[in-house]
Amino acid sequence: MSRQTGYELAGSLTMLVGMGASLYIYFTSQDFADSLNDQLLAQSKPYDRALEVMGGKANLMAELFKRWFFDLWQGTHLAYTVAAITVLVSFCLFVAAHYLDSDPE
Question: Which residues fall within 8 angstroms of residue 23, CB to CB, at 6 or more apart?
Fold first, then answer.
């Protein structure tokens, strides 16, 4: 088996396993917050205003980024994240297989 075939096989297996895992996560996950109070506090305008007063716009932007980033790793958003990472890794493997010389002479 050539290196090119190995990369193509690895890309196919990555796509198959990653998409299977993504579908499993999507159909078995539940979207829920740790607690209702934390969810309400994190989404309130006075909380955001207090963050901005204490640390400026940078503090508020950091908090919003943190909320977005942690949201990627919970519930159905995790399924979308796994699918995107799977597509990216598989694409890289297929591109690497395409540029490998299958007949080195």
Answer: 79
What is the torsion angle, in degrees rounded to the nearest 10, for the CA atoms of residue 19, residue 23, residue 26 and residue 28? -130
Across 47-73, b (16+ Cβ under 10 Å) vs e yields eeeebeeeeeeeebeebeeeeeeeeee
State pLDDT tens for residues 65-100.
888 888 888 888 899 999 999 999 999 999 999 998
pTM above 0.85, yes or no: no
Q: Is the separation of the CB atoms in 88 and 32 below 8 Å? A: no
